[in-house]
Structures are given as structure tokens and as C-alpha cells.
Amino acid sequence: MIIRRDFVNRLLEDRKDNLRVVSGIGTSTWDLMSTGDEKNNFGFIGAMGQALPFALGLSIAQPDKKILLITGDGDTLMSLGSLATIANHPVSNLTVIVLDNESYVETGSQPTATAGKTNLELIAKGSGIENTYTIYERTDDYKVLKTIYEEDGPSLIVVKCKAENTPLIFPHSFDGVTAINRFKDTM
Amino acid sequence: MEKISKDWRNDIYDVFKDIGISLVSHIPDAGHTPLINLCEKDNNIDVVTLTTEEEGVGLSCGAWAGGKKSALLMQSSGVGNCINALALPNICRIPFLTIVSMRGEWGEFIPWQVPMGLGTPKVLEAMDVKIFRVDYKDEVGETVNAAANFAFNTRKSAAVLLSQKMIGAKQFKNG
Fold this sequence. Notes:
The complex is a heterodimer.
Chain A: H1 4-12, E1 19-23, H2 27-33, E2 41-43, H3 51-61, E3 66-72, H4 73-78, H5 80-88, E4 94-100, E5 103-104, E6 110-111, H6 120-127, E7 131-135, H7 141-149, E8 155-160, H8 176-184
Parallel strand pairs in A: 1-2, 1-3, 3-4, 4-8, 7-8
Antiparallel strand pairs in A: 5-6
Chain B: H1 8-19, E1 21-26, H2 33-41, E2 46-49, H3 53-65, E3 69-75, H4 76-79, H5 87-92, E4 96-101, H6 114-126, E5 130-134, H7 140-154, E6 157-162, H8 164-167
Parallel strand pairs in B: 1-2, 1-3, 3-4, 4-6, 5-6
Helix pairs in contact in B: 1-2, 1-7
């Protein structure tokens, strides 16, 4: 079973300058912030469901950058329609990583739909995103890095990971203006 | 020289070009169709068809972070879908511009359009979106221009409400 924080840190330990990373509400943002205080990151702390369309808008506006969205199954389930929007407005520079722990861990570990019958990779595939796969083991790290930097997107990778509470690591500021200004200045 | 009268959607398009809008997202509405067609013919405007209006809020914000100005076109019924999403431009002070075609207010035939038509200004105000209402065709251009400048110069959210009387109420005949 994949430990999400270790996985995210591994992905970003030798990150390239052309990578911009957005994270979805909740643990995904704490995961991203655990990789360091980095100007090239922007973490959602609210507006659940908005990270997917935000990442699409950013990918359209910055075609020469690699855009990586790291988010959870809960956030993704809230904006399934955005998978269709992304598929039909193809952006070759966008990779979406869904850290799927099948659980709303932060609110008391209630099961999400993916703990039941729902398969996010199949939904993404059915939405028209062609490059999709699911990983269960860390041996596939290299494959994920290749997708982010080398393959034509849009891509969506479901990362099945352990449902556990992890330490909260906050961004350098909870102030949205400070956070977005810093991020925008890197473009 | 007096300006030759043309469709007011052209006036919106002209403002888009003038202020540099290069991304337009929408859930289509008949009132917006001529404008959507103009944007689709323009190689310098990216047009994104959404699955729900709230996506357009996040899309606009991400595009702005990447240096692109955009606008969301929707019908008043879509405004309700956007409420929580509007927290994003609000808290990050991201310029957000939407052009809303009103339903449920003048000559409306479909009663289901009325609740969100009545609720639209209240919902927008509740989320700190500045409203620019337009009732007359010859004021469309200047109103959209004012709203766009408000949004992009002050980094706030602005909504232009196009009145149903001006657009012309949709009529259906049974059978």
C-alpha cells in the first residue's frame, strides 16, 4: 500500500523548473507543503471541487509549463464533469494525480464512493481522457515521473494509497492573495 | 460619425477583444449563442464548453494565474451552481468576469426558471460579486466594459446581468 506523503515527496524531490504543482483541498495540500516551501506550488484549502478546472485553466494559459494537479478522491468525485471538460479540451501539459485512499480521512474517515463500486480511472477513461492508469505499488514511481514530464496529456493517474491521518503541514500563508500572487509571479 | 447599429452581442465581443479576453467558457444559453459563435470563429479566443457553470469559475482563476484573461457566459440558473466556487476568486482576489443572461423575470414562460431568476442578484451579492445590470441594447458595450475594468483593475468579481426584456423572452408553443 502506498504511503501518500512519501510518494509525493519522491515525485517532487528532483523537480524540474518548468513544473507547476496545484493541490486539491485537504490532505493533498498538506502533502504538497511537506515537500518544502516552494513558489511553484499552489495549494487549495477550500473551494472543494475547483482544483480540477483551475488546473485546466492554468494548463491552457501556460502551454510551455508542465502542470501537475495532486488531489484526492473526495475532491475529484465532486467535479467528475471536469474530467469530461478536460478530455474535450485536450491539454498536453496536464497530469492529474488522484491520491485515492477511498476515504474522507480529515473528517473522520468516512468511506468515499471509491471504497464502494466506483472506479475513478474508468470514469476518467470514459470521460475521454486517454492516458490513464492506476498504481498500487511504489515500484511504479518512474512511470509516473515519465507521464508528468514526457508523455502527452492530459493524463490521469489513480494512486491507491493508505487511509491514514498525516501531520498537517500548512502553506507559508493561509492568505489566498499572498499565495496566488507568489504562484502567479513564477509564470 | 454615428455608430452603425449592430447586434449587441457584437458589442460584448468588441469589449472582449479590446481588453484582451482570450478564454471564454460557457454553458450555452440561447441569449449568448451569437456571442459564442463569434468567439469560436476567433483564432485568438479559446472556447471551453463546461459541464456545469461552477467549473468556469475555477477555470477562469487558473487561467488568470497563468496570465490569461477570461470570461464565463451563463444563464441565471447557472449562478446558483457557482456559489461555493466563488469563494476562490473572492479569497485570492482573482479578477472574475461573468456575463449572465437573465431568465424568469420578464415574459417568462417556464415557471421553473423563476426561482433562480429571482435569486440571482441576491446570490451574487451574498458572495461579494459586483453586479452591473443592463436593460438597454445600446448600453451593453459600455456596461460590459465597466464590469471588465472593475474586475481586472480592482481584482474583484463582476457579473453583468443581461435583462430578459432586452434579450427577448423565449416562447414555446405546445403541440
